[in-house]
Write a structure and sequence with these properties.
Radius of gyration: 15 Å
Strand content: 15-25%
Oligomer: single chain
CATH topology: Alpha-Beta Plaits
Number of domains: 1
Mean pLDDT: 92
Number of helices: 2
Helix content: 10-25%
Distance between the termini: 7 Å
Length: about 110
Amino acid sequence: MAKSMMLALSNPVSKEREQEFNDWYDNVHAVQLLALPGINRVRRYKAVRQMLPPSDDGTPTYRYLAVYDVDDADAAITTILENDPTFDMSDSMNFEGAFGVAFEQIFESGGTE
């Protein structure tokens, strides 16, 4: 299990471009990030329902989550920012409101991966 991770919450710009967004994220963006030193694994998830903060109908604010297992949270962010101009970004992603944060592990209990 990685001792650091990054989380990215995002949405496509529209329902009509959702497949394009997912294709780009899986086949371009994730591949480019995995080519960087210290980024070891990318997993993506689609939201099912939002609990907090409550929404009127349970529709999630963010529809997609990407989890990146990294060697060192701070170093990964620095590497990504340094390489940002070389990434092939897609206008199918809604960058307004996108959210990314890196975490270092401080506790683990039970279970196996």
